[in-house]
What does this fold into?
Amino acid sequence: MYYFDPHIHMVSRTTDDYETLAKMGCVGMSEPAFWAGFDRGSVESFRDYFRQLTEFEPSRAAQYGIQHYTWLCINAKEAENVELSREVIKMIPEFLDKPNVLGIGEIGLNKNTKNESTIFLEHMELAIQYNQQILIHTPHLEDKYQGTRMILDMLTGDSRIDPTRVLVDHVEEHTAKEVLDRGFWAGMTLYPVTKCTPQRAADIIELCGAERLLVNSAGDWGPSKPTAVPDLILELRRRGHSEALIRKVVYDNPIEFFSQSQNFSFTSPQ
It folds into this structure.
């Protein structure tokens, strides 16, 4: 089965991973801007990073028949540096017309601080000004529920935000339903340790249904598995779910959501 990974950080993966993903059925992916493993010190370091996301990674992916898209922002971990964050936000429009840029992301909260909220709102304003879709990072572990509620309140507090053009990622059992009930798209991240396992993600699908629900591997610097989406496909098959439902979650839903971006020019392999 073909699938589309809507959130995977290929800058932290080897080229061998692209080959493996292609062999497993991955035909498309989107890569949000995120933390580099350390806090960057200048706007120029982000400019170079955005060039990597818009120039180098698409070419690496294309070698294996994978269509690569990306999102741009300064991530929540580095948003405590408000001065640098504002410089980066000011620079982002230089890249919004690049053919693989889908929108602003992954923005959100890390420790639910005042500075993080300030920069989140300024990213929102940028997305509104340039009519961009938004991809949201929700906090980890004990900060997740409160942080998710804070993010949803900020989003719904601005009438200019269309929930159907916002993907709220890293949902778990205690946050998925509220995200969906408020009209947003929801993403589940499959991690070996934190976030969701394939089994827990399958439970959430059975609880919430397949509408506006996506699944991803993240595949970042920490313990992660870039082929986690096929693990979920196997788990859903093991439980007897239809191929149509599986395809909806791992292929149709990402394409439906991303098709709202003017730069999404995905060519189906079928």
Remarks:
- Strands lie at 3-5, 26-32, 67-72, 101-108, 133-137, 166-169, 185-189, 213-216.
- The mean pLDDT is 96.
- The CA atoms of residues 13 and 219 lie 7 Å apart.
